[in-house]
Each structure stands twice: as C-alpha cells, then as structure tokens.
Amino acid sequence: MDIATKPAHAPAEHPPVALGKVGVLLINLGTPEALTTGAVRKYLAEFLSDRRVVDYPALVWQPVLRGIILNTRPAKTKKAYAEIWDQETGESPLRRYTREQAEKLAARMPEGVHVDWAMRYGVPGTAETLDRMQAAGCDRILLVPLYPQYSATTTGTACDAAYAWAMKKPWMPAFRTMPAFHDDDGLIEALADTCRRHTDETTERVILSFHGLPERYFKQGDPYHCHCQKTARLMREKLGWTTEFAPLAFQSKFGPETWLGPSTEDLVEEAAKEGLKNIAVITPGFVSDCIETLEEVGLGLAETFEEHGGESLKAIPCLNSSDAFIDLLERLCLRELQGWVAS
Ligand SMILES: C=CC1=C(C)c2cc3[nH]c(cc4nc(cc5[nH]c(cc1n2)c(C)c5CCC(=O)O)C(CCC(=O)O)=C4C)c(C)c3C=C
Ligand SMILES: [Fe+2]
Ligand SMILES: [Fe+2]
C-alpha cells in the first residue's frame, strides 16, 4: 500500500513522501518464471552474466555464454525443473519456499515491520520489490540473503543488487545486512534435528553436501569454504558423528575450472563401491529445496548410487518453511533490528 503523504508545513510543490517503516527483505538466488526453455534461458542469462558468479572478462565470457551455453543448457535445465516443479502451486520449489518463509516470518515480526521477498535473478526482482517497500514507507531495511555461509557469489551479489537499486534513488533507505549464520547454534540444532529424524541405525553414511565454487575464488579470499567446514564440524559435534561417517563434499560443478572438492558425486560412487547400501545426503548450504537438492541429489545422485551397487540414497529435506527455520529467522532478524524496533 502506498502511504505517501505531504509533510505538514511543506510548501504546496513539495513531493509526497512515505516514511517511518522498518522493512525486512528476504533474498534468494532465483528461478525461471515459468516452466519453459525460454524462461530458463532468460534466468540463466541474467545469472551467468553476473561478474560475481562468473568473473571472466565479458569480452571472453559473453560469446561463450551467448554462443554455446545459452543454446544448449536451457533445454537440459528445463527438463530437470520439470521433474521437480511444484504442481500444487505452479512455482519452482525455491520460489515457493522463499515466499512461504516471508509469509510466516511476517506473522512473527513486531507490528509495523514490513516483510517482503525477492530473487536476485528473475522475478520478483530485488529492484521492483525494493520500490514497493519504499513506496510502503520503509526507510530502514534489513537485507537477508538466504545463505547461511557467506560467498561473494551469493550473499555478496544479493547485497550488490540492493545497493545498485539504491544508487539510482534520490533518497535511499538505511540498509543493514544479515551476517553469515553458518555457525549459529539455532541453525546447527535445526540441521541436526532434521538429520536425526531422517536417518536411523541402517544409515551407513551421511554426506554433508554444499554447493561448490571455483577453487580460485577461495584462494582470492572468499570465506565460503571455511564457513562450510565450520557448519559441518559443528553439525558433527552436535550429532556425535565422525568425519568418516559424515564427510563434507561439494556438488553442482559448472565449467572447466577446478572447483572445491571432494565432489559429492565421487563420494557417492565410492560409498557404493565400498559396498554401502543405505546412505543419506544432507545439503546444509541450502535453506530451501531447489533443483540442486531435489533433482541433482534426490534424483541424479540416487541413480548414480544405485548404478554402482548401492540400494538407497536418501536426500534429507532442507529446512524450507519449517517452524525450526522460521524460529531461527525470527531470532536473527530481531537481533539485527535492535534499535529499529522496540525490543
Ligand atoms: C559459476 C557458476 C556458479 C557458481 C559460482 C554458483 C554458486 C552458488 N550457487 C548456489 C546456489 C544455487 N545455485 C543454483 C543453480 C545453479 N547454479 C549454477 C552455477 C553456479 N552457482 C547454475 C548454472 C545453476 C542453474 C541450474 C542448472 O542449469 O543446472 C540454485 C537453484 C535455483 C533453483 O531455482 O532451483 C541454487 C539455490 C550457491 C549457494 C553458490 C555458492 C556458494
Ligand atoms: Fe549455483
Ligand atoms: Fe546442478
């Protein structure tokens, strides 16, 4: 709702202003707008043109992206989305869970705090959502990129999009940004609880699988690798699990560079070749189920495991819009909103 009003005592030509509200903006990665190859191409073009994600010089990268990748990958990716598209709501799972998280968080925030959600790539876009929040009177906004572990390729670029929007505004709101929450005890407990509920005495190994990154980014100072290691260590400590029982791995390799390792796919194959029959994979870097967890792990790696002699690979669900995750979001947001809302 637009609450713009003309300030009292202002001259007649003074523009209307909307002020006085605090906003919380949840931002996730992005997703195609529809289940079509064209929508997937549009989303991938925006995503893979982000220099925080692929940092090659545009002169070298854009011809490869536009000439090869965007002509081959969208059809394959669309097929993968078709396997996991949410039939109930007609959205991608990532979009559905992000929306539900915002709706549930809104019900927990103090009166007058405006909660909204956006995607870094695709729709609803970050700029259009910030426009709406500003029109609703938000002059202080907490940005909450939905990634427990910081990476320039995810958290960094989500904030970039907000700052880029602000650069064009004559009067930008005050921003705060949610710090990484990879070692927050509430996150670790919620993940441990999910692990307990989805494993039993027949589970022979649980792979802690995080989205990968080019190793070069880590060497350049991106702390993501260290954050993943810490989340994994704290989960093992909480669960009393060894590194052998719960090894860390990285999935979703893209392109020819060396990525962080070991690769989840290699560990799944090795587990089957060792003769293990029942394993599980948890993805603690994703707060919402998406193509990477449901299709790549839940379908693709489950098949790989069986092909090499395993029987069952269980993909443990992400926290999604569970009470445990909303409790965590509520606590983190109230902590970061101190001084902006009455505590
Ligand atoms: C160089 C390429 C990529 C980097 C770096 C990267 C980092 C990164 N990504 C996520 C989370 C997600 N990625 C998702 C999809 C996805 N990621 C890449 C490439 C890189 N990601 C591609 C090409 C795709 C598209 C899918 C495909 O074509 O196979 C998603 C899923 C979105 C959805 O709608 O389901 C998420 C989530 C993290 C956390 C991360 C770095 C830490
Ligand atoms: Fe990715
Ligand atoms: Fe993938």
Would you state the CATH class of the largest domain? Alpha Beta
In CATH terms, what is the fold-level topology of the largest domain?
Rossmann fold
Overall number of structural domains:
2
Approximately what portion of the residues adopt beta-strand conformation? Answer: 5-15%
Overall body shape: globular
Cα(first) to Cα(last) distance is 26 Å
Summarize the amount of helix as a percent range: 40-55%
Q: What spatial order of strands do you see in the largest sheet?
A: 2-1-3-4
Judged by helices, strands and strand pairing, the structural class is alpha/beta
Give the name of the CATH architecture of the largest domain. 3-Layer(aba) Sandwich
Bound molecules: the ligand C=CC1=C(C)c2cc3[nH]c(cc4nc(cc5[nH]c(cc1n2)c(C)c5CCC(=O)O)C(CCC(=O)O)=C4C)c(C)c3C=C, fe (ii) ion
Order of helices and strands: EHHHEHEHEHEHHEHEHEH
Query: How many β-strand stretches?
Result: 8
Low-pLDDT parts are none
Q: Count the helices. How many?
A: 11
Q: Mind summarizing the main beta sheet?
A: 4 strands, parallel
Rg is: 21 Å
Residue-averaged pLDDT, rounded? 96
GO molecular function, one term: ferrochelatase activity
Main location: cytoplasm
Subcellular location: Cytoplasm
GO cellular component, one term: cytoplasm
